Amino acid sequence: MTTKLDTFNKAQMKKEAPDIRPGDVVRVHVKLPEKTKRGGEKIQVFEGLVIARKHGKGINSTFTVRKIADGIGVERIFPIFCPSINKLEIVKRSKVRRAKLYYMRELSGKKARMKTKELLGVEWTAPEKEKKEEKPKEEVKKEIKEEKKEEKPEPKKEEK
After folding, report:
1. CATH architecture type of domain 4-128
2. Mean per-residue pLDDT, 45-70
3. What is the model's pLDDT at position 127?
4. Is a pLDDT exceeding 50 seen at residue 131?
5. What is the share, in percent, of the chain residues with pLDDT greater than 90?
6. What angle do CA 23, 26, 29 make, to 5 degrees?
7. Are 36 and 23 in contact (CB under 8 A)?
8. 24-33 and 41-54 as β-strands: parallel, antiparallel, unpaired?
9. Distance between CA atoms of 85 and 154, rounded to whole angstroms?
10. Mean pLDDT highest for which of 1-5, 11-15, 71-75?
11. Which residues contact 77 (CB under 8 A, 6 or more apart)?
12. Separation in Å, CA 75 to CA 17, 57, 69, 79, 89
């Protein structure tokens, strides 16, 4: 028996959640409203080390990102299924042996370095809400056939 709360939570969750772990250096692209007369949104990037992931894998799950700005540590907690997260890039993945890296708050400089794993540009983008108009399959097949005909040069017959 599902409750209204369960159905609402399922609707709010994105189908694919990013694989974020403590020790990752991530770049979070967040949509913020602009405070101008015409309104609009701007995208702000917050790059830092993931020091914790909490509350499991459900709708309430969060991750904490820590960066150092002008010598001051700044931490920000993001819900994983937040609609204001536009894109999430994993810059670097480090080998860690703890689930929570709160000890990184006291470390600075060379002591705060971590061993990194090889990672080739993993990127997660939020699914688009707007659906693009799709052509019927028959029209797409016709266009593909026409393109193939244009690309193939006709074989030349050799005359003797």
Report:
1. Roll (2.30)
2. 90
3. 58
4. no
5. 19
6. 155
7. no
8. antiparallel
9. 51
10. 71-75
11. 62, 63, 64, 65
12. 21, 21, 10, 13, 17
Sorted by where each begins, the domain ranges of the chain are: 4-128
In 10 A of CB 37, how many CB atoms?
6
Type of residue found at 54: K
The single-letter code of the amino acid at 73 is: G
Q: Which residues pair with 64 in a beta bridge?
A: 52, 77
At 47 the pLDDT is 93
User: Does the reported pTM lie above 0.70?
Assistant: no
Q: Convert the chain into a string of H (helix), E (strand) and C (coil).
A: CCCHHHHHHHHHCCCCCCCCCCCEEEEEEEEEECCCCCCCEEEEEEEEEEEEEECCCCCCCEEEEEEEECCEEEEEEEECCCCCEEEEEEEEEECCCCCCCHHHHCCCHHHHCCCEECCCCEEEECCCCCCCCCCCHHHHHHHHHHHHHHHCCCCCCCCC
HSE (side-chain half, CA atoms, 13 Å) at 133: 1
Contacts of 44 (CB under 8 A, 6+ apart): 29, 30, 32
Cα separation of 51 and 21, whole Å? 8
